[in-house]
Amino acid sequence: MVHLKSDRELARLRESAELVGRTLAEVARHIRPGVTTRELDAVAEAFIRRHGAVPAFKGYQVGGRVFPATLCVSRNDVVVHGIPDEVPLEEGDLLSVDCGVVLNGYYGDSAYTFAVGAISAERVQLCRVTYEALLKGIAESVAGRRVGDIAYAVQTHCEQYGYGVVRDLVGHGIGRRLHEDPQVPNFGRRGTGRKLKPGMTFCIEPMVNLGTAEVVTEADGWTVRTADGQPSAHYEHMVAVQRGGPPEVLTTFAYIEEVIGTPPYKLNAELIHHG
After folding, report:
1. In whole angstroms, what is the distance from residue 60 CA to residue 67 CA?
2. What is the DSSP letter of 265?
3. Measured distance CA(275)–CA(265) in Å, rounded
4. pLDDT digits (tens, 9 = 90+) for 146-168
5. Is residue 271 predicted with pLDDT exceeding 60?
6. What is the pLDDT of residues 46-85, one digit of tens each?
7. Within 10 A of 272 (CB to CB), how many other CB atoms are there?
């Protein structure tokens, strides 16, 4: 069942979404070559708890498996659900950071793919196209349209560049639980799926691979990698369907951009190396 949120519930979700955006920006201050993802995880957990919330992912269980960290940190060919470790980041890495919080009983969830130092033009374009696909999916999140319209918009934009759109993982509803109905795939047909109604809140999160759409899951039961070892990008926003108007994007990347300056998806030549 899909729970349509009241004005009060939407206000709570905005607070959670705000904290997620600020947490990702705090993490961004520390992303550089030589830093470990475990260090980034500690930064995020301290920031979340300092602001009266708890990490949504730490202790999250699926099929008896317990996620051990605050952040999902997915580097290069890791698509999602990477577990923080002691391996230092390197110049040219792509790093998807997915963060969730619980504040006053409501969840916030957002993800952003960071460039570690200068990245290749190929990786910049992957980030740009993935981010554009997110925006195209958001634009379809209008009352009366369907989940398939979101999925189609994401898929067609990415596939025209020859990228693989991951099918094994999807976006999701969000509210008092981290994962609610409806599921929001990144592939599909127009005019299919659940009809969108005012008060629906969900996360749109394109997971897009430079090569094949196929993925494999490691023995830890969490880490999902591209099957061909090519890099992947991932952006995620929380969205609310509104009555008689465009969707409201509850999360923001503005705080991140205040920290990092021009993001990789804006094709700033200073961020690109060609070696």
Report:
1. 5
2. G
3. 19
4. 999 999 999 999 999 999 999 99
5. no
6. 999 999 999 999 999 998 999 999 999 999 999 999 999 9
7. 17
Kindly list the distances between the CA atom of residue 237 and the CA atoms of 32, 56, 248, 257, in Å, as whole numbers in the listed order.
Answer: 24, 16, 10, 15
Closest CA to 215 of 140, 249, 264, 165: 165
Q: Which CATH number fits domain 7-273: 3.90.230.10, 3.10.20.740, 3.30.1780.10, 3.30.420.10?
A: 3.90.230.10
Dihedral of CA 39/43/49/55: which sign? negative
| Contact criterion met (CB below 8 Å) for 100 and 178 | yes
Q: pTM for the whole thing? A: 0.95
Write the CB contacts of 162 (distance below 8 Å, at least 6 apart in sequence): none
Residues 106 and 251: their CA atoms lie apart, in Å, by 14
Q: Show the tokens assigned to 92.
A: 């040219």
> What one-letter code names the amino acid at 154?
V
